[in-house]
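Readers of this paper often ask what the protein records in our data store actually look like. The remainder of this section carries one protein's record, kept here as part of the documentation.

:::
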Amino acid sequence: MASSAVRDLLHLVNHPDFDRAQQQIEHLGGCTEPVRLTGHTVTVDTTTGEVLRSYNSSRVLGTATALL
């Protein structure tokens, strides 16, 4: 029987967002305990009301953004 770590790794490798997860792992330089931020942000043009960009951590693999 595979350990929970191996099962998690297999799940990650087969996830549709694996490429993004791999980028995060590389960005963290192998850090095993990064800070994980959750939440959302929206940048709005105050003149036009147009949403310029938005980000929501619930849409990323693992539901948190990892930082060093």
Q: What stands out?
A: The mean pLDDT is 80. The first strand starts at residue 35 and ends at 37.
